[in-house]
Write a sequence for this structure.
């Protein structure tokens, strides 16, 4: 399609280091381009939004991979492709050795059960006309996990207990609950399917600070208790650092850096990752007064017409002439630490 | 520094079918000329309503300012006529709202939205107002300001729209700007740009700033003084340093401890504030934070503590304010 695809296609997936568990998910060269059309009767494709433009990563069993970046970087689209809510333009999504993109709708059904999602907005992701009991039990009925309705009701109460809600919430409607409580319902609904893998798409972003910590702790407890694997999509770097084993940073449809969590935060290499970390204010006035603030200039360009070469070069502090021409290779600079920048 | 704004016992209530909601219940604080005061708290604590009350922008009905005084440069804003109040808004006190997507009029050009204020308050001619608008857009870091005048809000990104909002706020050189969650809807790198811009401009023109936010990091970086609100009341007030390094209210303490921090080693577990914020329509006697408080004593159940000084310039509304330890238990 363009130079970007050619360069990115040659890159290989970050190799799992020996001693670590097997991959649960492998994403290979994932590309999701949305057509922009004009005309009502005979729509004509006039441009393509390159929401995700060739990314490759894996998630090991029991691991939490953080996916961070700003609006429009493609992190949510990546999650939606894994969930099979979008049909990718190209690339592979391999779950436990099976390429999901090749499966028919029927063949996908068991995977739709194993792969669950927790959405960002606890207000719009619950049906306002259903009681909590029905919201949580419906997927169990649809997937025929528990056929008997009495047993399902019992399971609903168990699940409410697991997520820290009392049984009386079963007969409430979503509007009678706070944001944090609703988010717990969303988590209970995901758990009802006995999933292996959960995509948490900004699962705590809409919550107040004091409630956010409660839900983060809950997600952590559930991970340990049920051996869950998470893809944790978020823009809040401090939350990601707290919760994730490895972290991937995305910018404008591309992955710019991927490393073990501590390695990424202690030793960020890509100029965008550095700028992102520098932009997060620390809740301590003394530290803030001493800290040097390098404010990143410019705005995120449109993914319809991304800059040539490295997509970050127009905002980059260390960009050189070559950055606007060649697409940087995603290189492993240290064991497990991958960076897409020629200047580091 | 001279006092610019003095709020005394402000009470704003909403009369709803579920009962009277005391959104702001006896809030008092001052803002000096040129300083930045942050109002922090979680959803529903009354921080936005208290700010809207200053400009008398609370929708009536169902809301009403039922008590208190808001003295701006000695004049009580609550006693002004509607006409007098209109002269204050945008001229002496300006506002920057949270949502840059909805706070600009989508069918008016950027230029018109800036010049409108200038012509109304300062009686400028079209040419004067246009020239000033170009100057303002340049000041807030918008490229090609002349061309932008004819553009509409949907042509601009979220960050750009917030810059336009700031330009409008600065247009009449106000004494005070109230910014209600000015960067909540923005990405973190754009947030840093906008906050830096507001900080530099308010310093340059000596404008006082009230920043309403839930982001403790933003407060630490930009505020001189902090008011922490909970359930319609200011529960702690002091310099940013005092409040962050030596919190004297269990809620502030818990809030600071519940956020993961990038500069500290990773914790095994976060320490959340348990429970939910109270329903403001059904507040009982006693301290509203008591059900979630680790330091609560018998007295907290029936007597609501008043804001009292603990050290110079540092106030807390807590019976146990002198017995707090960071470990989370009261000193016996």
């Amino acid at each position: 399609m363009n130079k970007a695809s050619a360069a990115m296609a040659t890159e290989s997936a970050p190799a799992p280091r020996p001693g670590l568990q097997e991959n649960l998910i492998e994403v290979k060269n994932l590309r999701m381009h949305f057509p922009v059309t004009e005309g009502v009767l005979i729509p004509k494709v006039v441009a393509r939004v390159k929401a995700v433009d060739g990314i490759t990563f894996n998630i090991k069993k029991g691991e939490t991979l953080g996916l961070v970046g700003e609006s429009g970087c493609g992190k949510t689209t990546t999650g939606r492709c894994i969930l099979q809510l979008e049909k990718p333009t190209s690339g592979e999504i391999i779950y436990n050795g099976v390429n999901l993109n090749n499966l028919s709708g029927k063949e996908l059904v068991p995977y739709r059960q194993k792969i669950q999602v927790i959405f960002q907005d606890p207000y719009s992701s619950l049906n306002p006309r259903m009681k909590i009991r029905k919201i949580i039990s419906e997927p169990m009925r649809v997937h025929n996990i528990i056929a008997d309705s009495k047993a399902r009701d019992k399971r609903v109460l168990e699940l409410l207990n697991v997520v820290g809600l009392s049984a009386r919430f079963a007969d409430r409607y979503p509007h009678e609950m706070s944001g944090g409580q609703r988010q717990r319902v969303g988590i209970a609904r995901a758990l009802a399917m006995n999933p292996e893998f959960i995509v948490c798409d900004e699962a705590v972003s809409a919550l107040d600070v004091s409630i956010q910590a409660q839900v983060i702790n809950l997600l952590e407890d559930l991970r340990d208790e049920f051996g869950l694997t998470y893809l944790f999509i978020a823009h809040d770097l401090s939350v990601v650092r707290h919760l994730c084993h490895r972290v991937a940073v995305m910018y404008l449809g591309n992955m710019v850096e991927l490393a073990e969590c501590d390695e990424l935060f202690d030793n960020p290499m890509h100029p965008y990752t550095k700028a992102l970390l520098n932009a997060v204010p620390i809740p301590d006035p003394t530290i803030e007064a001493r800290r040097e603030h390098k404010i990143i200039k410019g705005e995120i360009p449109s993914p319809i017409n991304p800059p040539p070469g490295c997509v970050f070069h127009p905002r980059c502090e260390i960009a050189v002439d070559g950055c606007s021409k060649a697409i940087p290779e995603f290189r492993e600079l240290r064991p497990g630490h991958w960076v897409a920048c020629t200047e580091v | 520094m001279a006092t610019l704004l003095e709020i005394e016992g402000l009470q704003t209530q909403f009369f709803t079918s579920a009962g009277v909601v005391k959104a702001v219940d006896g809030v008092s604080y001052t803002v000096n000329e040129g300083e930045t005061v942050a109002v922090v708290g979680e959803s529903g604590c009354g921080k936005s309503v208290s700010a809207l009350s200053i400009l008398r922008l609370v929708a009536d009905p169902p809301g009403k300012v039922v008590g208190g005084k808001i003295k701006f440069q000695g004049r009580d804003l609550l006693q002004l006529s509607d006409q007098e109040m209109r002269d204050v808004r945008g001229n002496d006190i300006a506002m920057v709202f949270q949502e840059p997507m909805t706070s600009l009029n989508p069918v008016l050009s950027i230029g018109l939205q800036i010049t409108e204020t200038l012509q109304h308050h300062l009686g400028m001619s079209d040419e004067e107002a246009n020239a000033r608008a170009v100057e303002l857009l340049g000041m807030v870091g918008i490229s090609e300001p002349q061309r932008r005048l004819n553009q509409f809000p949907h042509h601009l990104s979220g960050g750009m729209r917030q810059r336009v909002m700031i330009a409008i706020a600065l247009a009449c050189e106000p004494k005070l700007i109230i910014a209600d969650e000015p960067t909540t809807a923005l990405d973190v790198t754009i947030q840093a740009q906008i906050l830096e811009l507001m900080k530099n401009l308010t310093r340059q023109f000596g404008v006082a700033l009230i920043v309403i936010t839930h982001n403790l990091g933003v407060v630490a970086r930009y505020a001189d003084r902090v008011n922490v609100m909970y359930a319609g009341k200011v529960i702690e007030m002091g310099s940013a340093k005092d409040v962050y390094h030596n919190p004297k209210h269990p809620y502030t303490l818990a809030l600071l401890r519940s956020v993961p921090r990038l500069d500290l080693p990773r914790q095994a577990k976060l320490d959340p504030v348990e429970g939910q914020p109270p329903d403001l329509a059904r507040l009982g006697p006693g301290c509203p934070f008591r059900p979630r408080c680790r330091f609560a004593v018998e007295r907290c159940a029936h007597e609501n503590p008043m804001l009292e000084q603990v050290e110079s310039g540092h106030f807390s509304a807590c019976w146990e304010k002198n017995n707090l330890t960071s470990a989370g238990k009261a000193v016996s």
In short: Chain A touches chain B at residues 70-71, 178-181, 208-214, 216-217, 220, 235, 237-239, 241-242, 262, 265, 275-288, 293, 295-297, 299-300 (CB under 8 Å). The CA atoms of residues 268 and 274 of chain A lie 6 Å apart. Residues 1-19 of chain A have pLDDT under 50 and may be disordered. Chain A has eleven helices and twelve strands.
